[in-house]
């Protein structure tokens, strides 16, 4: 039955059923021409789209290889990725440029002023200096309070000369060779060797004094260095212009020390040690202001953090040795 109705619907010119079935809306009525079916709402029929030719002028997307059919736009500059990342198939370093270096004061596009660089440099220098002084105090305490170590050093005097040779070689290498004190990890290795050698020599030297004299010298040195550092940070006087005068004073002090060897005595020893303590106290202010930079005429580069720490360490060690000499000479 259903098949007969479908046949009638498609073959009857008036689209009418036999037996008085009423006409259905949407179908052709008698006497009217055939009407096309209206398209269903929401289901439009689209003709097949032809393939479009490649469009010129569209740049390739950053981070992806160029797509075939797209010509790169002249003058297009893609944004560079963050440091350590590169485009696919491209090196991490953009052509003709360099990424941001925190220690590079010439870097552009970053809100990183010279003052903030200098503060980071000062923190790094004092961190290294603190480790050096901690190692030195540990050696001094070991030689003062451990009798086995003191006896072992007395039985092996060659260790003193080995430590002295290591100290001189490493000190000259760091002072004269810029790559040695700037290139990591070589700079840290040389500084560690120098610190251990200098600490060993100080331990051997302090073993000849009583523990009370050494502790008194340590306390006085700490107070003097703290006061001089605060003075260097607060004063308006520029000590960085005194480099030539201080160098001449060191030469005179060395000549005075050579003369004092041939004329031993308590008085000349105290005078020599007092002059040495005063000179290296001024040197501590000088080296501190070189490290600070800012309004001072001369300053040390932030790349020279090893050299700055070495200068401060030498100043403090020399102040300690001269103060210990004054205490020992006054009590002997």
Automatic annotation (TrEMBL):
| Annotated localization | Membrane
**Which keywords does this Swiss-Prot/TrEMBL entry list?**
Membrane, Transmembrane, Transmembrane helix
> What is one Pfam family matched by this protein?
Bax1-I
User: Topologically, how does it sit relative to the membrane?
Assistant: Multi-pass membrane protein
Signal sequence extent? none
Compositional bias (Low complexity) spans? Answer: 24-34
Domain of life per record:
Eukaryota
Q: Where is the composition biased (Pro residues)?
A: 50-71
Give the stretches traversing the membrane. 125-146, 158-176, 188-208, 214-233, 245-263, 269-286, 306-329
The UniProt annotation puts the region (Disordered) at 1-105
Residue spans of biased composition, Polar residues class: 1-17
Q: By its UniProt entry, which InterPro entries does this protein fall under?
A: Bax_inhibitor_1-related (IPR006214)
* Family note: Belongs to the BI1 family.
Name of the protein described by the UniProt record:
N-methyl-d-aspartate receptor glutamate-binding subunit
Tell me what organism the protein belongs to.
Aedes albopictus
